[in-house]
Design brief:
Strand 7 and strand 8 form a beta hairpin. A 6-stranded antiparallel sheet has the order 5-4-3-8-7-6. The protein has 261 residues and is of the alpha+beta class.
Length: 261
Amino acid sequence: MTKLQNMSMDRGLTVLETLAANGGLSLAQLHKITDIPKTPLRRLLSTMMDRDFVRRSVADNRYRTNILIPRLTKSGFLPHLSDLSGIIMPHAIALTAEIGWPTDIHLLGAGCMTMADSTRKLSPFQLYHGQINLPLNMFGSASGVACLSRCSLGYVEEMLDMREGDASYGLDRFGITRTAYFDVLSQAKELGYGIRLPNYQGETELGVELAAIAVPFAKQNRPIGAAVTMYPRDHRSTEDFAADFFDKLNSTANAITAALS
């Protein structure tokens, strides 16, 4: 291997390590931290995006790693991040272009949902920009309800056991029994979409202002995430919003499932 090839490999690994340690970074931030000139840095990022090692989020145009570096990665690793840029997000972008309202993509992880990307930046409706990689309560969020409504009873019980007693990410946060929660999941399955539990107000102060409907998408017949269409809570009722936009959101989720297959 030549000295030039060694330098290129070293720079590539430096980029991956930097993204794993810092989360989303702009080109300017990567340049400042790594001291790699911007022209070769752009080439490295382009190559790594082509190979699905790195993605560029729609929500904030920052680069993020798709691979796990255990000693550096701050957030939990989601195995489907590499599907975001090329497979999932184009469908979310097309939906927002059609209906105007933004779509978040939430991925199902061990014990929580994670906001992986969003089209809020592309929407004409100025909702606050969500936080990428933000963990969400899977039992209270619309995306969690949507995904769990399509999961096996055993899996739901396993998640409930994992988060039992957890005031932030468990069912205890909402003061309802498991029996009542399974009724919620049954209703979501019947409707075809999930909504937030009535007393779930999101994970940020601004989250209380939003409502959502969510439809899960699957890979190898297993729910791995949900497409979530957001709107102001006081804009209209969930029933009215779903009447207008559920069919298009459902078609988008089905298209993502087909593409992932």
